[in-house]
Write a structure and sequence with these properties.
The complex is a heterodimer of chains A (about 400) and B (about 230). Chain A has about 400 residues and is α+β, with helices and mostly antiparallel strands. Chain A has 14 helices and 11 strands. The two termini of chain A are about 35 Å apart. Helix content of chain B is about 35%, strand content about 25%. In chain B, strand 4 and strand 5 form a beta hairpin. In chain B, helix 3 packs across helix 4 and helix 5 packs parallel to helix 6. The chains are: A alpha+beta (about 400), B alpha/beta (about 230).
């Protein structure tokens, strides 16, 4: 009995295939809706997923377990003093605190001159955590910070402006009239930290890194309003934040909006939430194409049923049961939409691969998207093939044979 | 008189033509003995196609009883009717009704598919039937590679495939030239001589005369012989 049903099923499949192959152009046009729908879903999911992965990787590179504190301060207390920084560093789950200052100065060296050089004041801890930043020479050491030494590291922009065609290491330059010795150079690619790009990208001729204590002098300030905090354990970031909030609240007399703690991880989470919402929205829109494609299949199947009335009548005369007729047409609809689904997957993957190839997005094969696309198309075949198949099975054989 | 093989009593078929009831068959009584070659002769519009559909269990009468091979047809559901068509009746149509995408052999196999015959057995029986109708060298030809007479012989092989009790032919020579038609009639007579019961519906008296018995249908009423038809 099962064998018989299987024979019947295989027979239906082979008949469906021969019918689909028999009218290639029409079958293709019918499945076009499904192809577009599935391809859109696959491409969107793959590209959005790839973009999210790429952005996450960038955020991770910026440092997991790194917090950034922005001090807004009050009228009488604009930033944190060294003693207060030490207080923060003393928190149980804080590994290190790295203050950072930023300003724009004019720089000169002999005849070469620029009035837009960005100065970053950092400490040794910063360079320990961003070891890739250093291209040549040496980084800023603890002793430089302690002694407020006038040493600096220059990036490519600064080198080009002030040391054109020369090796800057070991040379001197003037920042707002103060003499500094260049001890190292900065790796351009690693300097692409997102924040400095967003804040200062392109507006200056170059960037110079100096000890933060020295930068305070340059800026004429005794406090720091931006700092990076490295926690002892990324999993305990929240605890570290609470500890620091206690300290900071105390320092600012519990006033609101005096400081902001930016957690990279929570930013990543927020971004992931946003991209997944965007993805659902886009997939939702692409699904409309699938529904339209399903209607296309339904229409084609209804036309087929009408066209093949004689055939249906003949099959019934030869002993086909209504259920067998229904199954054959249903199988045909499912094969059509599955075919569309498979082509759609191939097109979608190709398109997203090409998109990824031409952008910075990394291509990754999204199994879930493929499974979703194929099962969606099969479901479309069942849903939209059912009514025409039912119609075929209910056809009166007499009406069918009369049309001969 | 009534027999278990084929018996119709008071078969009436009415159609609702937009509110107006049209009676196509007006009480048909018909008995057929096993082994007969019956010609049902009638002009178009006489109700002979409707009668054929009822005989072939493709349609059910409005009233009256029809017994085929010991079974009351009106008691059967769609599935059982399909089984009757599959096992008991072999259909032959005027336009052959071969499926163009299938070759001759696959066409002959089709009723065996619905009868649930396993694939290898199907092919064996289909080949046997094609040999029987003299098409042993045309097994893998498609419809468009066969002449009208050859197509009709494929259709006859298909009708014979499930070894049915009854061959039911609707104008089997209607689409053929006279000579080919004669050949098909000879084949029918041979099959009849082998003991096969045949019911043939035609409007052509010359063709009808190949049968062992002729009934005449006119305006939905049946009469024995050809007297009412000229």
């Amino acid at each position: 009995m099962i064998k018989r049903k299987w024979d019947m099923f295989m027979e239906s499949v082979s008949m469906s295939v021969s019918n689909i192959v028999g009218s290639k152009m029409r079958s293709f046009l019918t499945t076009l809706g499904i192809i577009i729908g599935v391809a859109a879903i696959i491409a969107l999911m793959t590209v959005v997923q790839g973009a999210t992965d790429t952005m996450n990787a960038q955020f991770d590179a910026m440092g997991l377990g790194t917090l950034r504190i922005q001090i807004n301060g009050t009228a009488i207390k604009r930033g944190l003093t060294d003693a207060e920084l030490a207080e923060l560093e003393a928190c149980e789950h804080v590994a290190a605190v790295s203050p950072s200052l930023n300003t724009t100065v004019s720089a000169s060296r002999g005849e070469a001159w620029s009035d837009a050089i960005s100065v970053n004041g950092n400490d040794a801890v910063y360079f320990e955590h961003n070891a890739d930043l250093l291209a040549r020479g040496r980084a800023i050491h603890a002793i430089d910070v302690e002694q407020e030494l006038r040493v600096c590291l220059v990036d490519g922009g600064t080198s080009k402006t002030l040391f054109y065609g020369e090796d800057p290491v070991g040379q001197t330059l003037y920042l707002d009239g103060r003499e500094y010795t260049v001890v190292g150079t900065i790796d351009e690619d690693e300097d692409a930290s997102l924040f400095s790009q967003i804040l200062f990208g392109g507006s200056t001729d170059g960037t110079v890194y100096v000890p933060y204590t020295s930068a305070k002098k340059l800026m004429g300030t005794s406090t720091v309003s931006t700092l990076e905090v490295y926690v002892t354990d990324p999993d305990l970031t929240d605890t570290a934040i609470e500890e620091m909030e206690t300290v900071l609240d105390g320092l600012f007399n519990y006033k609101d909006n005096t400081y902001t703690i930016i957690n990279m991880e929570s930013m990543t989470d927020a971004m992931n939430l946003m991209t997944s919402m965007m993805m659902s929205l886009l997939v939702g829109i692409a699904s409309i194409a699938l529904v339209v494609g399903g209607i296309g299949i339904m229409n084609m199947m209804l036309v087929t049923v009408t066209e093949r009335t004689t055939e249906i009548g003949l099959r019934k005369a030869l002993g086909a049961e209504p259920g067998q007729i229904q199954m054959q047409f249903l199988i045909e609809a499912i094969i059509l939409s599955l075919l569309g689904g498979v082509i759609g997957v191939i097109v979608g993957l190709t398109v997203s691969y090409l998109i990824c190839l031409n952008t910075d997005i990394t291509f990754s094969f999204n199994t879930f998207a493929v499974v979703l696309g194929v099962s969606f198309s099969a479901a479309v075949g069942i849903i939209f093939g059912w009514a025409p198949a039912r119609k075929a099975s209910n056809l009166n054989p007499i009406d069918a044979l009369r049309s001969m | 008189m009534s027999n278990d093989f084929f018996s119709m009593r008071g078969i009436v078929k009415q159609y609702d033509m937009g509110g107006e009831i049209s009676t196509i068959l007006k009480g048909i009584d018909l008995d057929i003995e096993e082994g007969q070659f019956l010609s049902v002769l009638g002009p178009s519009g006489s109700g002979k196609s409707t009668l054929m559909n009822i005989i072939g269990c493709l349609d059910t009468p409005t009233s009256g009883t029809y017994m085929l091979h010991g079974r009351m047809i009106r008691d059967l559901d769609q599935k059982q009717l399909a089984r009757i068509r599959s096992r008991e009746i072999g259909f032959i149509f005027q336009q052959f009704q071969l499926l163009p995408r299938l070759d001759a052999l696959k066409n002959v196999e089709l009723p065996l598919v619905y009868a649930g015959v396993p694939p290898r057995e199907r092919t064996r029986r289909a080949e046997e039937m094609l040999v029987r109708v003299g098409l042993q060298d045309r097994m893998h030809h498609h419809q468009n590679q066969l002449s009208g007479g050859q197509q009709q012989r494929v259709a006859i092989a298909r009708a014979l495939a499930t070894n049915p009790t009854l061959l039911l032919a609707d104008e089997p020579t209607g689409a053929l030239d006279q000579r080919t038609g004669e050949q098909v009639m000879e084949l029918f007579q041979e099959l009849n001589a082998e003991g096969r019961t045949i019911i043939m519906i035609t409007h052509d008296l010359k063709i009808a005369r190949h049968g062992t018995r002729i009934v005449n249908i006119l305006d939905g009423e049946l009469s024995e012989g050809v007297s009412a038809y000229d």
